[in-house]
Specification:
The structure is a homodimer. By secondary structure, chain A is an alpha/beta fold. Chain A contains eight helices and 13 strands. In chain A, strands 3-2-4-1-5 form a five-stranded parallel β-sheet, sandwiched between helices. In chain A, strand 12 and strand 13 form a beta hairpin. The first copy, chain A, starts with a strand and ends in an 8-residue tail after the last strand. Strand 7 of chain A pairs antiparallel with strand 7 of chain B, so a sheet runs across the interface.
Chain lengths: 246, 246
């Protein structure tokens, strides 16, 4: 008997080479692909026969409800996310709504979040303990984001910063860098930025935290802050796996 | 002309369904597979014709040198890691050694680190800002690990704990939980544990931080600590994507 099923699929950066075999199988098994227009556009050409349901950026809850209703009616749905299905992804809101649709099963399929895919471009920036922090204050008060950045700096964590900038908040990365500097990160900390990870016109650069303070980045960029031991080795950002040498 | 090339390949949890297409291609292109015995055993049956070089757990630097020397002699090497190539992986030590082998190119191929693959098993535990912290004090002083745990708790981060236990340090998870409790995490914090992620005999459980304090786990386990808003929804661990409702 056919199950009423929603796959929540992490696509990784977008190019099919970053899909896991499990994610590819889920997309193939689905009757309909549902997601934010930009992500649907990344994959629809590989499945030209599939039904798609694409909606705009802030319509996450509508998409979750649509996916659950469509699965309830008997179709298998793949709800797609860029990066991982969980990290700032759709697995969380759909699992919150799922108890209203008791016949529907949710299967979460992980994918490469930008911290990992962009990290590979830079070298090994997150080889030791790290944090992931989003600078988007759409759902989180800025004071909470500031506190997290301060704690990340005090703990000398490596940090991957998501959503470092947008039209409405062009100076958030600068504000974040100042908080890191005020809480123990040195100006010489090795940092990296990667734009358009795994896509055409991918760009990356290794700079210091002082240089990062006045760097303009856009919403397609992920930013990496090293810890005290992170090095720039022949233009690769490399964090040793510990503080002692083996 | 053939390049002198080492791929550093993140395998994810081990089962081929978690390999990305890029990782699969790298394994296929390699002349020789090199890695820790347990990880080589996970993949050698899929490439029965390939030369393999497998060594024991603490031989990371020897493996890196062997991979670089072998690539220098003209073979393409895939140096494999479980999880991601970067996160506590082999990309870091090999990039540190690489300047001694100027003819050899290193290509880092990301993979699903346990935070993501185990997170998908539990639901969406890391859907908001999170930290990854290893409790292994082989290369990092325990005082540093304590400080990181305290900062993670003060910032109300979700936390994925790697290497929570081993024969030589059976009580480290208990010590870690106490530090989290002393620094602001409540006893009712929703936590999850996943053992043997993506492998036979995968097990998972959702418990409170108070219950976690006296839980015995082994080295094949990854532990997840929620933030203030994390919920147990029908036995899924779900962290909302922000503190405000959409």
């Amino acid at each position: 008997m056919k199950r009423n099923l929603v796959y929540v699929v992490g696509l990784g950066p977008g190019d099919p080479q970053f899909l896991t075999a499990q994610a590819k199988t889920a997309l193939e098994n689905a009757d309909v692909l549902c997601g934010y227009t930009v992500y649907i556009d990344l994959i629809r050409s590989f499945y030209p026969q599939k039904e798609v349901h694409a909606t705009g950026m802030t319509k996450e809850i509508d998409r979750c409800r649509w996916a659950l209703e469509t699965a309830q009616s008997g179709k298998t749905v793949a709800l797609v996310c860029s990066g991982d299905a969980g990290v700032y992804g759709m697995a969380s809101p759909i699992l919150e709504l799922a108890p209203n649709y008791p016949s529907v099963e949710i299967e979460v399929i992980p994918g490469l979040t930008a911290a990992l895919s962009g990290g590979a471009v830079l070298g090994a920036p997150l080889a030791h303990d790290f944090c992931v922090v989003s600078l988007s204050d759409r759902l989180t008060p800025w004071e909470m984001i500031e506190k997290r950045l301060a704690c990340a700096a005090m703990g000398d964590f490596c940090v991957a910063i998501y959503n470092p900038s947008s039209k409405g908040r062009p100076d958030y990365l600068q504000r974040a860098v100042r908080i890191l500097l005020q809480n123990g990160k040195s100006e010489e900390t090795v940092c990296g930025i990667v734009r358009n990870i795994g896509r055409e016109r991918q760009q990356s650069e290794i700079i210091t935290l002082r240089e990062l303070e006045n760097k303009q980045v856009d919403m397609f960029t992920t930013v990496y802050i090293g810890n005290k031991t992170t090095k720039n080795i022949e233009s690769k950002m490399v964090t040793p796996r510990g503080y002692r040498t083996v």
